[in-house]
Amino acid sequence: MKTVFVRPELCIGCRHCEVACAVEHAENKNILSAVNEKKKSQPRIFVETGPGYKTFPNRCRHCDPAPCMQVCPTGALVRDIATGSVGIAYPRCIGCAVCAMACPFGIIRFGPVRQLDTDREVNAKCDNCLERQKDGMTPACAWACKTGALEFGDANDLVRTSRKDFTTRLVLSEGKGAEVTALPANIRAFKAIMEELAGL
Amino acid sequence: MYDATESKKIAEARALDPTDQEIIAKAIDDGVETAWDRLADQQPQCGFGQLGVCCNRCAMGPCRIEPFGKKPVRGVCGANADTIVARNLLDDLATGAAAHSDHGREVVEVMLETAEGKSQGYQITDETKLAALAAEYGIKTAERKKEEIAKDLALAFMEEYGTAKGKLQMAERAPTKTKEVWKKLGIVPRGVDREIVEGMHRVHMGVDADYTNILLHAMRTSLADGWGGSMIATDCSDVLFGTPVPIKTRANLGVLSKDKVNITLHGHNPILSEMIVKAASDPDLVKRAAEKGAKGINCVGMCCTGNELLMRRGVPIAGTFLDQELAIATGALEAMVVDYQCIFPSLPQTASCYHTKVVTTSVKTKIPGAIFKEFRPDNAYDTAKEIISLAIDNYPNRNPDRVRIPAKPIDMMAGFSEETIRKALGGTYKPLIDAIVTGTIKGVVGIVGCNNPKIKQDYGHITLARALIKRNILVVETGCAAIASGKNGLLVPEAADLAGDGLKSVCKALGIPPVLHMGSCVDNSRILVLAANVANELGVGIGDLPVCGAAPEWYSQKAISIGTYFVSSGVYVVLGIPPKIFGSANVTTLLAAQLQGITNACFAVEPDPLKAADLLEAEINRKRTALKI
User: Under an 8 A CB cutoff, do B44 and A200 touch?
Assistant: First the structure.
């Protein structure tokens, strides 16, 4: 099972993923012309800020079974068998927003899409960059992420890193002070300062 | 959904001062966007930028370095995180130094035009200071008219900006030991513009790649600001408008008037604001205001031009950097007149929610949606009258239903120039030195800098100032930090009761507040001169003195230059907001540790003002111990 794995501790809120996503879903996949398109492409990934200026890039998890698919009354949400992604048949979407109510992650956004002739707002959620994946490329968000906060690959492989990290922490743990995170000292210092500042 | 309790709660989280809170809540209720809203809209802010590892200089980029140890470790040109962080810091610092110094140049130009009889409404006011400066610059004064001396002095100041001389006369004020450190490091400033331009050269792709070398030039550029451009701005303004002496006035948004034409003067240079204040008492204009139903013309200051006015004229001050939108949101402002620096580009949009006119006056600062009235030395008085007329004519447009002016302005005392402090002590720093030696006063901390919506407005300034005076540490302030203390009631002699017993006794004996307002942000040069004079009296370097600096709420590039010239001069500085350097461990270590071995001072970053007070006290104790006191 391939997925875009999120490591929030590595997210620095640059929003490269948002920009890359919007460009990828634009008509002319070029940032310079994308900003002038009539129906401006919107990102389908959301870098949200939580307490302490901590950020999390939130996107569709392409669940299976997918709650959004299960509740869609018109069958507008469809499974791409090859990639396991939940795609959208835009003409079928009636904008009822029931999918958004069912989505556990709150990542569905509605808006006009270039694939339709009208301006009506439809589910314009993440399609897991189906076109890119068919060309053997990774989804645009993970491709754009420079810090490894978004990584595309086999879920089991990616989880293994986290498991190893946890194991190290467990083995090395000699009390509360043990510090095995991979973050460099200067970055840890910066994050601590920002967290403190957020409370003032 | 409209909820008045909700806006009150938000306001309390945004600002410390109750009058600010009142107007923030009004702005929220009125649907007016402010900097706090824009900060929220900007979340998350790009981590590459925050860490300083984003480089947007050339067209091979933009590039950024992965901060967690992965690729890319170099930009397209090959610059690593150290180079990029140091270059960005020098760029920011040079911008700040340029802002101060270009402001200084304008004052010098007005002095020259005044000396030549070409300006309108200005005069040479402080002849004592003129004579002292002339002596410093080797300009003859005997049997010469003040205009002749001022002309030579203005031309001498202009030379400080150039390359021909290769040294700064002003920097000679520094103690020998401090200058020795600069010489050893090769950072003696050679000319104000020269260091800034060379800084711009060095950050060009393919020039300086050695972070240490880049930072050394940053230090030299900052010295050309503190001991050059800023110092010239201060001294030249004193000659033209008078050297400040203790003066009483009032602070906070409550200084706006219910029944007079309100004009807020916002920005930095006294050149404009002095003339507006002068013209505001013009009988024709006062009469015109009465005809429009107003009871007079009420000029109030804001930010550093406000500081210039209150230091010399006792003009009330409406507030700090983050008060600029709030002054408009009172609904009682006829005109917001600005020169430059720290002016929100969105002010005309804020003003469009009320009747306020935003007036820009400098060719360097035009804002879409504002009215531009070019202000030049040769038309200064006429333009000032024109701007005031515009405000008067706007008075009938004020909608009383949308006006709310906070009830109670706070009394404050300002005007503590270096000359005034020295005079108050009896012409010598010996009484201050004695008080420090005996420990009655442990040391001195300069709290300076801006507001930043990332920290509750004035919370950092006030919490730190109160903590320090309690520990018998005298606080001197400039800029928005000083205004914050004014709003908080710390700038009155009675505030000495908040100080520790030692400092309290000194304040009571001299009748001064425990927190001294020393002026605008260019007036940090007054703190340098004060420190230099004390060090000279003791025969030590500035780095030996139990003197520290803090910028708890800084935001501006100018603050980077200020902090760096203090550290380069030997003064430890605690910053409340992290500078964009954390992407390079090497740069961070150099600035926050290694520098101490060189200038006997370094930077620290600590947002919590109470923890910052501990750091500052520890540094003061370290220096006291070294002095064996």
Answer: no
